[in-house]
Amino acid sequence: MVDPIGKQIRSPFFPDVYTVIGVVEDFNYESLKGEIEPLGLFLAVSNSVISVKANGKNLDDLITKTEALWNTFAPMQPFRYTFLDDEFANMYIAENRVGKLFSAFATLAIFIACLGLFAMATFMTQQRTKEIGIRKVLGASTFNIVLQLSKNFLYLVLIGLLIAAPIAYFQMEQWLNNFEYRIDIKWWTFVFSGLLVLLITFLTVGGQSFKAALANPTDSLKAE
Q1: Is the pLDDT assigned to residue 84 strictly greater than 90?
Q2: Can you give the pLDDT at residue 35?
Q3: What does pTM read for this prediction?
Q4: pLDDT tens column, 135-187
Q5: How far is CA 154 from CA 138, 141, 144, 157, in A?
Q6: How far is CA 46 from CA 25, 42, 43, 51, 74, in A?
Q7: What's the confidence (pLDDT) of residue 128?
Q8: In Å, what is the CA distance from 162 to each residue of 8, 27, 181?
Q9: Residue 201: phi, psi to the nearest 5?
Q10: Hey, how many other C-beta atoms are within 10 angstroms of the C-beta on 97?
Q11: Could you tell me the CA-to-CA distances from 181 to 62, 79, 86, 168, 178 in Å, in that order?
Q12: Mean pLDDT value across residues 83-109
């Protein structure tokens, strides 16, 4: 490979000849959906744009001082400014909107599912009141009763996860393929999500089951 340092090149926009003084590694200056295109950085004086590096503290004061300095040297040009992080964020407006939309619907779906589970658990414990009383009389522990009442729900949720996980993986792969530079989906993401769903299910159903398991077995056996 030929060392480019010290070589002279011409700009496609200006007639000047430039000397290469350095080469930087590839970096993304546009959306990650596209490949990194060739980029030339020319050391020159700009009469319309300045870049300011700031630490993010006292931005209001920084903007005020920058505007005053701008008006001193370019009073005929209006002062306009943008932040670099906002410029990058604008590249992914659609993705951010989709992410917020999915988060809202996912939260709503989980809430509705928990309401349904709670109602089903309440109905189930009422139907099995005498069974719970008999189990307690025969020496079953509270944990054992809670587990017996909850396991059917956990089985159904586990089956749902086994069906949903491959579909979610395929859909995420299809979406990530739109990006030239993308991440890989880790297996532990689905494991963690599945465990979290099972925990939410157990807490939702287990609350009613635990309440039924603590009830006086005498009252349970008298229930009609």
Answers
A1: no
A2: 86
A3: 0.65
A4: 777 777 777 777 777 888 888 888 988 998 999 899 889 888 888 888 888 88
A5: 25, 20, 15, 5
A6: 24, 10, 9, 10, 12
A7: 73
A8: 61, 39, 29
A9: -65, -45
A10: 10
A11: 35, 36, 20, 20, 9
A12: 87
- Amino acid 110 reads I
How far from the centroid of its chain's Cα atoms is residue 72's Cα? 45
Backbone angles phi, psi at 18, to 5 degrees: -115, 150
Residue with tokens 């807490």: 203
CA distance 152 to 159: 11
Average pLDDT over all residues of the chain: 82
Amino acid at 36: I
Range in 71-80, 118-127, 132-141 with the lowest mean pLDDT: 132-141
Show the 3-state SS of the chain: CCCCCCCEEECCCCCCEEECCCCCCCCCCCCCCCCCCCCCCCCCCCCCCCCCCCCCCCHHHHHHHHHHHHHHHCCCCCCCCCCHHHHHHHCCHHHHHHHHHHHHHHHHHHHHHHHHHHHHHHHHHHHCHHHHHHHHHCCCCHHHHHHHHHHHHHHHHHHHHHHHHHHHHHHHHHHHCCCCCCCCCCHHHHHHHHHHHHHHHHHHHHHHHHHHHCCCHHHHHHCC
